[in-house]
Amino acid sequence: VSPISDTTIASATTQDADLGGVVRSRMRYALPAAAAAVLVFTVAGGGTAGAPPDLTASDEAVGLAMLA
Predict the structure, then answer these.
(1) Range of 22's domain?
(2) Number of compact structural domains in the chain
(3) Is residue 57 part of a domain?
(4) CA atoms of 56 and 63, how far apart (whole Å)
(5) d(CA 41, CA 49)
(6) Distance of CA 5 to the CA centre of its chain
């Protein structure tokens, strides 16, 4: 949710639109959406309760050839 996008800037420069007014009117939607996203990510992204898995048994350098 971006209050200032390329489309907004392009339309404001090609047409006589008030860019500041457009941004102000979109902020009333963008700020609550950002606050809700931060809240959801904070609650849902709390991490794991246990220790991280031990991956040393499967870390072979031969598998790196597939990345090339």
Answers:
(1) 1-47
(2) 1
(3) no
(4) 13
(5) 17
(6) 15
